[in-house]
């Protein structure tokens, strides 16, 4: 019998404060630095939201212009990173490619690239911007090389989302697709102390470096209980096939005690605040693509899950099919989550350093009592 209460998975445990975002399950709301995420998705670019997460305020027009100029200058895939990616098998999981590429960036001495008089904060702001600008090239190139296609150079006349789609598909996106992608990047950007963000804070709390913290966060995000769920949603749709088979499939899956990907959440218990916004994006994409079959399958599984378990969708449920309709390979979905969440992760890394305390919880020992090593012959 343990002496102290055990909070398995740290469920419900408040371990620190943060000024970056507020997840409120009672009001089913999410604020980034005080702004409702739905308003940011409707009115802002992902570049503006990245600035907000890092600096605490939305950028002025001049600040945005300066940020966009820097971000666009840092977009071309680093030649050393391309060499590394080319050395990896095309069968490697894209999350392993992204994790390896980010880890490798940490081996360069980027302090040489930075202006004089840098503080840790400004050095990390520079590193955050570098990852923000490089991840689209890494993610886009890995999808293209898996398809036997060549690297596409970035375009500095396009915004972040349009350029990401340009580098992936080699054509300028339709405005509706660009906006859909922009909304998804904003919705995925930040979500308080989720597992990958907390991983980044734990690594940072030892005073390790930003690249190590982001590498750890990517490892945590890969798991299907976290970011990997958006890929797994498409696998579930593939198993079910058509809407009329959804309820029978679910009955069998639940009988096998399977976790249904894209449903449930550790914090939201009355639905994920981001789902309505992402579902509206998905509905538009379904309409434009003439994929009513996919829309019906989505609705049928949601209906079955709600009625059988009363467990509601999380963001990954609409995001998966939306990325599919935008043309991304399923294996690219979680790397897209990385490209977005790197903004939240790096904001938390910098916040952790502002008032750092080593993160080191306790455990209750339940192993054998103290005993002697048997005498050796
Ligand atoms: C993300 O934390 C964040 O903010 C994460 C995220 C972010 O933006 O960073 O929002 C992104 O990771 C979203 C979640 C993506 N993961 C999935 O979709 C995977 C499927 N979901 C489940 O594994 C689950 O819902 C979790 C892990 C997300 C949350 O689980 P909890 O809060 O730990 O709850 P639990 O696993 O203890 O489940 C409670 C009960 C259990 O039933 P009993 O064993 O008590 O009978 O609900 C059941 C669970 O079996 N349950 C599910 C289920 N989710 C919960 N049963 C089937 N399918 C599910 N999806």
TrEMBL record:
GO biological process: carbohydrate metabolic process; tricarboxylic acid cycle
Gene Ontology MF terms in the entry: citrate synthase activity
Alphabetical list of PROSITE patterns matching this protein: CITRATE_SYNTHASE (PS00480)
InterPro entries, A to Z: 2-MeCitrate/Citrate_synth_II, Citrate_synth-like_lrg_a-sub, Citrate_synth-like_sm_a-sub, Citrate_synthase, Citrate_synthase_AS, Citrate_synthase_bac-typ, Citrate_synthase_sf
One Pfam assignment: Citrate_synt
Catalytic residue list: 265, 316
Reaction it catalyzes: oxaloacetate + acetyl-CoA + H2O = citrate + CoA + H(+)
Entry keywords, A to Z: Transferase, Tricarboxylic acid cycle
Pathway listed: Carbohydrate metabolism; tricarboxylic acid cycle
GO cellular component, one term: cytosol
Entry similarity comment: Belongs to the citrate synthase family.
Record-given protein name: Citrate synthase
Organism: Ruania alba
């Amino acid at each position: 019998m343990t002496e102290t209460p055990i909070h398995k998975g740290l469920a419900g445990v408040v371990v620190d404060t943060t000024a970056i975002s507020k997840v409120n399950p009672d009001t089913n709301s999410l604020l980034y630095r005080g702004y409702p995420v739905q308003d940011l998705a409707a009115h802002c670019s992902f570049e503006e939201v990245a600035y907000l997460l890092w600096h605490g305020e939305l950028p002025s027009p001049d600040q945005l212009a300066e940020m966009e100029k820097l971000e666009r200058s840092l977009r071309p895939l680093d030649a050393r990173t391309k060499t590394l990616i080319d050395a990896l098998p095309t069968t490697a999981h894209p999350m392993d490619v992204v994790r390896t590429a980010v880890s490798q960036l940490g081996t360069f001495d980027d302090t040489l690239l930075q202006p004089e008089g840098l503080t840790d904060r400004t050095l990390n702001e520079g590193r955050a911007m570098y990852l923000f600008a490089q991840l689209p090239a890494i993610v886009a190139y890995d999808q293209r090389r898996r398809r036997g296609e060549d690297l596409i150079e970035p375009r500095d006349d396009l915004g972040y989302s349009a350029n990401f789609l340009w580098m992936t598909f080699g054509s300028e996106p339709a405005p509706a697709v660009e906006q859909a992608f922009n909304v998804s990047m904003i919705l995925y950007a930040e979500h308080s102390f989720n597992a990958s963000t907390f991983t980044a804070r734990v690594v940072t709390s030892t005073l390790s470096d930003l690249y190590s913290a982001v590498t750890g966060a990517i490892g945590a995000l890969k798991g299907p209980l976290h970011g990997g769920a958006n890929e797994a949603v498409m696998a579930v749709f593939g198993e079910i096939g058509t809407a009329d088979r959804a309820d029978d499939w679910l009955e069998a899956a639940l009988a096998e005690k399977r976790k249904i990907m894209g449903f449930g959440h550790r914090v939201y218990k009355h639905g994920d605040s981001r789902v309505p916004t992402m579902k509206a994006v998905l509905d538009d994409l379904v309409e434009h693509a003439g994929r009513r079959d996919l829309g019906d399958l989505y609705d049928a599984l949601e209906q079955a899950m709600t009625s059988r378990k009363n467990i509601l969708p999380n963001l990954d449920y609409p995001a998966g099919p939306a990325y599919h309709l935008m043309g991304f390979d399923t294996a690219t979905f979680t790397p897209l989550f990385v490209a977005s969440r790197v903004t939240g992760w790096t904001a938390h890394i910098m916040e952790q350093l502002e008032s750092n305390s080593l993160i080191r919880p306790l455990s209750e020992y339940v192993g054998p009592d103290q005993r002697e090593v048997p005498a050796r012959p």
